[in-house]
């Protein structure tokens, strides 16, 4: 029993630290769970408190209780990974952008835990800022994933959690277009694409019907090739890839597109 209790304590602490619900103590028989909970409580381990989210105002205070910088960095890292996996799973562009930034931190700074912790905190701030990103009248969950995909595919831009501009080497891609011009075209393109998606997804058995999916693809191509969008850089040349990306987002976010408020 002593070994079991010690392993249970490690398991609970690992769940909190790694933000991994697969390590949950759920499913343990009630009698054994009662014994386990009593032991954990005697050790000062609260099994009722869930791992704190990076969005929680007390997150920084909670992490600050850790004595070692490496432990602080690990807690921030796993909290960020959990947020990306759970909260941003419906927004692939934003999720990929922050995942790449997270990987780059560990690649660049290796075992320099002070610097890693510092950069992870900066990344966390950027993720928090993403929640405040302007939506230009678009629905944050239903339409913004499309908007970001178009922005990246057409202008080579992604959200950076602060000043948004062209990545190095891509500034000339949209030469002659102001930021307002780009946003206006992207919003218009997003709205028209979304309406076509939503209309077709409402049809019963849409994803099982090849003709229905082909019709949506044809409708999407018609939107992309409309005169008002033809001047957008790379849109014509990359139309097949962009249509595939739209279909991927439509399938992954089907329920959100149809039912989210």
Plain-language structure description:
The protein has 261 residues and is mainly alpha-helical. The protein folds into 3 domains: 2-42, no CATH class; 59-130, no CATH class; 144-259, no CATH class. Helices cover 61% and strands 0% of the residues. It has 11 helices and no strands. It has helices at residues 2-18, 30-42, 59-63, 69-86, 92-109, 113-130, 144-155, 179-201, 210-224, 239-252, 254-259. Helix 4 (69-86) packs parallel to helix 6 (113-130). The longest helix is centred in the last third of the chain and has 23 residues, at 179-201. The chain starts with a helix and ends with a helix. The model is unreliable at 7-14, 16-20 and 159-173 (pLDDT under 50).
Radius of gyration using CA atoms only = 23 Å
Largest sheet: none
Can you count the beta strands? 0
Which residue ranges are poorly predicted, with pLDDT under 50 across at least 5 consecutive positions?
A: 7-14, 16-20, 159-173
State the helix count: 11
Short account of what is shown:
With 261 residues, the chain is mostly helical. It contains eleven helices and no strands. Helix 9 crosses helix 10 (239-252).
List the helices and strands and how they pair.
Layout (H helix, E strand, L loop, with lengths): L1 H17 L11 H13 L16 H5 L5 H18 L5 H18 L3 H18 L13 H12 L23 H23 L8 H15 L14 H14 L1 H6 L2
Helix pairs in contact: 4-5, 4-6, 5-6, 7-8, 7-10, 8-9, 9-10
């Amino acid at each position: 029993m002593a070994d079991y209790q010690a392993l249970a304590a490690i398991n609970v602490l690992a769940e909190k630290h790694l933000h991994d619900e697969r390590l949950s103590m759920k499913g343990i028989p009630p009698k054994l769970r009662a014994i386990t909970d009593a032991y954990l409580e005697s050790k000062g381990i609260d099994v009722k408190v869930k791992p704190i989210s990076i969005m929680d105002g007390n997150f920084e205070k909670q992490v600050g209780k850790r004595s070692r910088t490496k432990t602080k960095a690990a807690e921030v890292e796993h909290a960020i990974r959990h947020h990306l996996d759970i909260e941003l799973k419906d927004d692939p562009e934003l999720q990929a952008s922050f995942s790449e930034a997270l990987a780059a931190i560990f690649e660049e700074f290796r075992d320099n835990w002070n610097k890693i912790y510092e950069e992870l905190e900066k990344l966390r701030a950027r993720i928090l800022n993403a929640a405040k990103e302007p939506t230009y009248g678009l629905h944050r969950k239903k339409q913004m994933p499309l908007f970001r995909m178009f922005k990246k595919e057409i202008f080579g831009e992604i959200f950076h959690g602060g000043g948004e501009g062209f990545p190095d080497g891509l500034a000339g891609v949209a030469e002659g277009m102001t930021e307002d011009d780009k946003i206006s075209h992207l919003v218009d393109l997003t709205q028209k694409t979304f309406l076509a998606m939503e209309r077709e997804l409402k049809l019963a058995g849409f994803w099982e019907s090849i003709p229905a999916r082909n019709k949506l693809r044809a409708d999407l191509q018609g939107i992309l090739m409309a005169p008002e969008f033809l001047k957008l850089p790379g849109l014509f040349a990359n139309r097949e890839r962009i249509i595939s990306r739209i279909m991927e987002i439509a399938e992954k976010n089907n329920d959100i597109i149809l039912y989210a408020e």
